[in-house]
Amino acid sequence: MTHPSEQPRYNVIFRTCDAVFSVNGAPRPFGLDKRSLIKLCFVSLYEAIKDYPHTIHVLGDKLSGEMQEFFEQFPVTLTNGSYGNDESIRQSIRLGLRVADDEWVYLCEDDYLHSPQAFCWIDDLLRHRAEILTFKPRPLWTALLVNRMHTRPLVLHPPDYPDRYRDRYRHFSMLFVSNYCHWRQVDSTTFTILLQAASLKRFEDTLLQSATGANDYYLSRRHYARYFWRGWRERMLCLSPIPGIATHLHSDVMTPLVDWRLMAERLIERYPAQLGSIRLLA
């Protein structure tokens, strides 16, 4: 591919709390306790993004002393408050609103394990966005459904949830190919999303409203279109990679076709001082 755009700059806001094991009570894989899970997920993110222009702001909610000491080993800005889940979402959005319009904000929850190539693949898509996402709808009537995809506000959701392949959730969606993977249009996400700061500011009101009750369903229905685009000014194009470049560490929703255990084991070997005490169970 040719004519890449300028190098994107990433601003990570890593929202974390070690006081709550799981908001929805779902079991965690590999027998991980919450602190081990947070450490593993953060190091995977740090490893994936460290070679790209970035900042990391860790937004802690009642973090323990152990976790504060852990994060202080990395080049991050650490804020530790007493928020509760809804308010911590609002605080992460407000931090993103401070970022320059042309930079990218990654709102990241603390239970997503990233693959080493995550930001290589993301960076490739963003740098070649105009070429990858430009197409002429055929037949022409389909322009009523899809148009100007390369200029629409873009949201990336790094996991590939397995329920998207189950009968009741399957539906038609656009598919794009980059240098490393396919990117599929999706119409639902959690609060782990990457978007440009200009888009965050444009949709500030509804993003903040979605924080009440941690309502990612409201966020998704309000901003991500499935079929109809023309004339819908407040709709973003939301893409997830195939295969996924991150996984939600809940046993029943992990991104398929990736050996996440092997990735975790390699991280533990690579960062013995920070992760050496972690043991993965069968």
Question: Care to describe what's here?
Answer:
With 282 residues, the protein is of the alpha/beta class. Helix content is 30%, strand content 18%. It is built from ten helices and eleven strands. It has a nine-stranded mixed sheet, with helices on both faces. The chain has a two-stranded antiparallel sheet with strand order 5-11. Helix 7 packs antiparallel against helix 8. It is globular and about 60 Å long. The mean pLDDT is 90.
Q: Indicate the radius of gyration in whole angstroms.
A: 18 Å
Strand content: 15-25%
Biggest β-sheet: strands ordered side by side in the sheet: 3-2-1-4-9-6-10-8-7
Low-confidence stretches: none
Structural class: alpha/beta
Whole-number mean pLDDT:
90
Number of strands: 11
| Shape call | globular
The largest β sheet comes out as: 9 strands, mixed
Number of helices: 10
Question: How helix-rich are the residues, as a percent range?
Answer: 25-40%
| Terminus-to-terminus distance | 42 Å
The ordered string of helix (H) and strand (E) elements is EHEHEHEEHHEEEEHHHEEHH
